[in-house]
Amino acid sequence: MLLAERTGYIIWVSDLKAARNLDKYGTVHYMSRKMHYVVMYMNAERAEDAVRSIGRLPFVRKIERSYRNELKTEYTKDNDDKSHFYSM
After folding, report:
1. Could you report the per-residue pLDDT of 43-58, keeping only the tens digit for each?
2. Which InterPro entries match (predicted)?
3. Alpha carbons 33 and 16: distance in angstroms, whole number
4. Which residues are 11's β-sheet partners?
5. Which domains are delineated in the chain?
C-alpha cells in the first residue's frame, strides 16, 4: 500500500464553529480556540484546488503552507560531544 503525498496548511479563521466544515477538504489535525487557526493536511495533488476554494470561504482570513515536510529531520553526529568538558 502506497501512501499519497500529503501537505500541511495553517488556516487562520475568524469563526471556529464554521471552521469545522474544513474537514471535507482534508484531515483537520488541530484547531486552536485561543489563536483561531486550523492545522490540516490534504493530498498534495488536489491541494492547489482545495486551497483556492478554501480561500473563498467567508470565515478564512489567511492560508499558510506548512514547510514541515521540507525540514531536515535526520541528524548526524559529525562534531564531537563536548558536554563531558562542562560536567562537574
Report:
1. 999 999 999 999 999 9
2. DUF2129
3. 7
4. 38, 63
5. 6-69 (3.30.70.80)
